[in-house]
Specification:
The structure is a homodimer of 377-residue chains. By secondary structure, the first copy, chain A, is an alpha+beta fold. Chain A has 3 domains: 113 residues, Roll (DNA Polymerase III, Chain A, domain 2); 124 residues, Roll (DNA Polymerase III, Chain A, domain 2), CATH 3.10.150.10; 117 residues, Roll (DNA Polymerase III, Chain A, domain 2), CATH 3.10.150.10. Helix content of chain A is 18%, strand content 42%. Chain A is built from 6 helices and 26 strands. In chain A, the strands form 4 sheets. An 8-stranded antiparallel β-sheet of chain A has the order 6-2-3-4-17-16-15-10. An 8-stranded antiparallel β-sheet of chain A has the order 14-11-12-13-25-24-23-18. In chain A, a hairpin with a 3-residue loop joins strand 15 and strand 16. The longest helix of chain A has 12 residues. The N and C termini of chain A lie far apart (66 Å). Chains A and B meet through helix 2, strand 9, helix 5 and strand 21 of A and helix 2, strand 9, helix 6 and strand 21 of B.
């Protein structure tokens, strides 16, 4: 293997693989990136056996072949080089020599044959999907996924193809058992999702990164990402880079039965105002529970909190509440997380009693709901 | 105590005390800020018993008095308030009630009489000092101070009044035993510094913060900071805020005998180039030692490093070296730290042999030198 590449392209590729490689892997090759040189360019690959990324970058290849070296170390080196051509050549012992101007680096390598192969997928299985919608759906759900390793079936977002009013609809749901976020996108067809799949958080965040800030500008054609689903993998492809994510095995819980249907007490208020009030009142909530007490009375909602060490806080907001008096406790952090991803100016907060989950919905975007379990007072 | 204050002023004061208060103090009142209301404003004070800060802020005081509450909690609350008037009132049990618009906070307090008094100092003892010079001297020395608690006499910067060519001169020196930085400023008189004092790092950084980015602009009058020294405290004052720092007790080591006088081998090179070469080559140095090998030959300086796990690196720079061949090892991090604070475009690197400290000097600013001990190869 021997090629010349400019610093900018190489650094871009090496930056791309940094979040995938395992920092302290017990399997040394998982800390490495696989470099494959062929024809007009090179590919860089990294995997943690759950999520893999592979990208193509232009290079002047004089000898095809492959090598595998520490992704972090190569990144650190290339970052410090001048903006000029970098020459890479594989040596006999799997080491790689990197030369740039007057710097010479000999970088320890591992036999690239040991690099775990990516799952196979077929070009024809890919389907285009508008990037804006996909990013939005991920953003509005992924925060609610669990980070507890023992609850592996909640460590991701559940994708399911459903029908709403006879229209094909893609649903995403995430929950950690204390809160849940669900969003539907109607008119979006995605085959083989009848049973549903669970996509891990890390892979989804990589796909989100792959999409980038490619928000659609007026008059521009909407960007697309190409997606494909095999038996155990989800693959996303955009501009020469693919992200492969292994699906989480296991059953996603019966989330539908958790969503209360009889929350008949509703408050409608400004999202910004709700956020700012919650932030103020929760300063006095204890660090762990972040419990805030809500008192609903005709025309008003009062939030309060207290901590043994620091004191108490209370704030009242005038709202259009007309139900019975109700006192219920909620975790401020969970409410704030949900409000943060809502796109609307106003939200609905729907309640039943102090043992039923509260539901937040962005006004005008009823395809999205967040549920927060109540806290004991 | 009762007063009204606008959010901006209050938040500025509370931000100021945050770095002083102890997060996990065993003495609860040290986590608090002392609020004293009198006449046209309030003062906020915080101390960790080594460094104290006290600042005055305008307020509309309706009842003079004082209170003490958690500095962090008060900051968190005020940060979340709207830009409007804040009303503070002390209650019987040392608690404080804070009201802003529709928010009411009752904040736990401690009897302000328990707050440690600041040392006394006299207004007439303060002497003006140009802020630019003072900041520069701190920046160029403080990085070399030790952070090891057991070496308390090295945990700061040594200030000493000396004479250079018959002129009064202020000298600052810091060392951690492995490297040292020394800077002299001639024409600067500072009384009672004949014996020298050691000022702790934290206090100096607070004084630097107090000075702010007040770099002198062309045509502007240079800003000054007022400084005063008592038996055991150093006090800095600027625009209504004072920082009081307790001097470190103990002897500063005999640094003069450590500075080699016979480094007859000299290399002169671009500071930027030296920094960028060191960064590249040190990528292959082991994380802890960061040892880089220097090989000096007629007309060239070669830097190299190697790590068992990752490989090796080498880079040669053409320099005006004309001494004997010399091979010596240095810690790249120490050299980089020293080069980072030097103001000149070019630096001198002065050596003798592989057991003598190397000396870095900014060309044209010979009042500043940094010394780095050699590493065994």
């Amino acid at each position: 293997m021997e090629f010349r590449i400019n610093k900018k392209d190489f650094l871009k590729g090496l930056a791309m693989v940094q979040t995938i490689v395992e920092r302290r892997s017990t399997i040394p090759i998982l800390s490495n990136t696989l470099i494959q040189a062929a024809e007009e360019g090179i590919t860089l690959t990294a995997t943690d056996l759950e999520t893999a990324i592979k990208g193509w970058f232009p290079a002047s290849v004089s000898l095809e072949g492959q090598a595998s070296v520490s992704a972090r170390k190569l990144f650190e080196i290339v970052r410090e080089l001048h903006e000029s051509e970098i020459h890479l050549q594989k040596k006999e012992n799997n080491w790689v020599t990197l030369i740039s101007e007057k710097s010479v680096f000999n970088i320890a390598g591992i036999n690239p044959e040991e690099f775990p192969p990516l799952p196979k997928f077929k070009e024809e299985d890919f389907r285009p999907f508008p990037t804006g919608q996909f990013t939005e759906m991920i953003e509005r759900t992924v925060f609610a996924a669990s980070t507890e390793e023992s609850r592996y079936n909640l460590n991701g977002v559940f994708f399911k193809g459903i029908e709403v009013d006879g229209q094909p609809t893609l649903r995403m749901v995430a929950t950690d058992g204390h809160r849940l976020s669900l969003i539907d996108k109607t008119g979006v067809e995605f085959s083989s999702l009848e049973k549903g799949i669970i996509l891990p958080k890390k892979g989804l965040l990589e796909i989100k990164k792959l999409i980038g800030d490619g928000a659609q500008k007026e008059g521009e054609k909407e960007e697309v990402i190409h997606l494909s689903l095999s038996e155990s993998n989800f693959v996303a492809k955009k501009e020469g880079v693919i992200v492969v994510t292994r699906l989480i095995e296991g059953e996603f819980p019966d989330y539908e039965s958790v969503i209360p249907k009889e929350n008949d007490k509703t408050v409608r208020l400004s999202r910004e105002r709700f956020i700012s009030c919650l932030k103020r009142v929760s300063t006095m909530a204890s660090d762990k529970g972040e419990g805030v007490v809500f008192e609903f009375r005709k025309g008003s909602m009062a939030l309060s909190s207290s901590s043994q060490d620091f004191g108490d806080a209370k704030e009242e907001i005038e709202v259009d509440y007309s139900g019975e008096d109700l006192v219920a406790g909620f975790n401020a952090r969970y409410l704030l997380d949900a409000l943060a991803v809502m796109g609307a100016e106003e939200v609905l907060f729907e309640l039943k009693d102090n043992t039923t989950a509260g539901i937040l919905k962005p006004v005008g975007q009823e395809e999205h709901l967040c549920l927060v379990m109540p806290m004991k007072l």
